[in-house]
Design brief:
248 residues; 0% strand; 77% helix; Serine Threonine Protein Phosphatase 5, Tetratricopeptide repeat; mainly alpha; 12 helices; 2 domains
Length: 248
């Protein structure tokens, strides 16, 4: 199966609501990094609208054909009947076009906003090595995180955090859990980091807001975003943009 066929099947399964929750999380995450898949997703969404519009056009063509089959009555009656058929067709067309306009201009859903704004925090941390066993575990954890192997990375980061809660490890652990769709665990990780009052607390609040967004807890997401947006930091502008999107 080539990439194109695989992408088509993925997009079709998403729009047909045939994916599990875990599959949806992975799909939405992939949308954020795979331009080809995002292009196909956007095109499919547009196609859905086009099909709906096409259905309305078919109604109009049907009424045109029906008008041709009208019995040979007086011109006045035929004109009146024709007007009624075209009026009905116009009403159907207007209704569907209006629906398409509204559908096409609907604001992004929480899932779509999550896909747009979530990007795993990069590994910018240098682990402190103390002994070969610990060094191997830490190095492997960071390596797996960079490779996108979040399940293995999360398990190793969790072990490290049991020994000591380190800001960098907590931040990446929370991101790994969020990428896996384990939002409750990720919330705990980010809240633990916030409690440490570390410089990474702002990033933790940003990703905590995305946890709430992923779970559909919009009020909590907004409250957390407002806290991020107040100051001038790396996430303040993105927080304001996301707040505006949620307000629409």
């Amino acid at each position: 199966m080539n990439d194109s066929t695989q992408y088509i099947e993925l997009v079709e399964r998403y729009f047909d609501n045939e994916m599990t929750d875990e599959e949806k999380v992975l799909f939405i995450q992939q949308l954020d990094t795979d331009k080809a898949l995002r292009h196909l997703y956007d095109r499919e969404k547009l196609l859905i609208n086009t099909v709906r519009f096409g259905a309305a056009k078919n109604h109009l063509e049907f009424f045109k054909e029906l008008e041709k089959s009208l019995p040979d009555v007086t011109a006045e009656k035929k004109e009146s009947a024709t007007w009624m058929y075209y009026a009905a067709a116009a009403a159907v067309l207007l209704f569907v076009v209006a629906g398409i306009y509204i559908f096409g201009n609907n604001e992004a859903t929480p899932d779509e906003l999550y896909a747009e704004y979530f990007a795993p925090y990069p590994n910018v941390f240098e682990p402190t090595v103390r002994g070969s066993e610990e060094a191997t575990k830490r190095a492997f954890a960071f390596q797996k995180y960079e490779e996108g192997e979040y399940a293995q990375a999360a398990a190793l980061f969790e072990e490290i955090s049991q020994e000591k809660k380190e800001p960098g490890v907590l931040l990446l652990l929370g991101n790994a859990n969020l990428a896996l769709g384990k939002t409750d665990a990720a919330k705990n990780n980010f809240n633990d980091l916030i409690q440490l009052a570390d410089a990474n607390a702002v990033a933790a609040r940003w990703y905590l807001s995305l946890c709430y967004l992923r779970d559909g807890q919009l009020e909590q997401a907004k409250a957390t975003l407002e806290a991020v947006a107040k100051g001038e930091n790396a996430y303040s502008e993105k927080a304001r943009q996301l707040l505006n999107a949620l307000a629409k």
